[in-house]
């Protein structure tokens, strides 16, 4: 065995370990501020203090406890913009959502931090949400097909 073999093995091992972190690195598709500037330029920042029934509705929709007591959003010309972080499989995914007249106008994945499932940023996935609304039971009025690993 040559004297370079242990050094080579260490370099290869370090490269393999580092590559695991690279796969989990965040992918920024659009900065949240840029999303707001694109869809609601100059919008007024607001905070919605959640009542118990509103928090319960959110938890039913996302199917887990909602940790906050308020939700931040922007308002302009009857449209609202929401920047939300939701856990994918293990990491938060930051999304921008535009709502007008109670219906989703646009959904965009802004920052993706998972090692798999990055397809959620593609329009083929996000278009499923367009024109979605809450039904009389305050549930989403359509089924959304998920992506394995996201």
Walk me through the topology.
Elements: H1 4-23, E1 27-28, H2 32-39, E2 44-49, H3 52-62, E3 70-76, E4 79-87, E5 92-100, E6 103-112, H4 123-126
Antiparallel strand pairs: 1-6, 2-3, 3-4, 4-5, 5-6
Structure commentary:
The chain is α+β, with helices and mostly antiparallel strands and 150 residues long. It has a domain at 27-129. Helices cover 29% and strands 29% of the residues. The protein has four helices and six strands. It has a six-stranded antiparallel β-sheet with strand order 1-6-5-4-3-2, with helices on one face. Strand 3 and strand 4 (79-87) form a beta hairpin. The protein starts with a helix and ends in a 24-residue tail after the last helix. The model has no long low-confidence stretch (mean pLDDT 83).
